[in-house]
Design goal:
By secondary structure, the protein is an all-alpha fold. It has 8 helices and no strands.
């Protein structure tokens, strides 16, 4: 087993810039690793916590698994009530989208429920936001559009599971 090498405090800003670049390059596992290194030195670094949460949710398409639990574990570590609620919405929304992409029995219904959960979080975040921050409104609208697209919301509600008869 390897012993990981610690970052120096002076290197944290540059490391966080690198993590953001890895996220933009669709390399969320690399970004997550950098955030873990930063959080080893500064466990309450809010920028690193948010970036780690986002990197974890960006890996949902590979299978939700432990990424979901790890992303949810970040929420109580966020200092701002707004951030805790807003990022809970991000987790639910990205989980829903991953379900739709991966597919399978129950995926549309599960995604429907998760999108409504995300919207509830965004609605709460809207009440906690600072003036000029409409991020929660933008995310709520995106979820609503996804549910309304091609009448998807109504179809999912009507969907029933019928087992195959042999």
């Amino acid at each position: 087993m390897f012993q990981l090498k610690p970052l120096t405090r002076d290197a944290i800003p540059r490391a966080l810039e690198k993590a953001e670049r890895y996220r933009l390059l669709n390399e969320p596992a690399e970004a997550e690793s950098i955030c873990e290194d930063v959080l080893h030195i500064e466990p309450d670094n809010q920028q690193a916590l948010v970036m780690e949460l986002l990197a974890l949710t960006e890996q949902f398409d590979d299978g939700v698994g432990s990424h979901l639990a790890n992303a949810r574990a970040v929420l109580p570590r966020l200092q701002s009530a707004y951030d805790r609620v807003y990022y809970a919405g991000i987790i639910a929304e990205r989980h829903a989208k991953a379900l739709l992409k991966i597919g399978g029995i129950g995926a549309p219904r599960g995604a429907h429920e998760l999108l409504h959960e995300a919207m509830a979080h965004y609605q709460e975040a809207e009440t906690l936001r600072q003036q000029g921050n409409d991020d929660a409104v933008l995310r709520w609208n995106a979820c609503a559009r996804l549910l309304m697209r091609d009448g998807a919301d109504e179809r999912v509600v009507e969907q029933r599971f019928e087992p195959f008869l042999e």
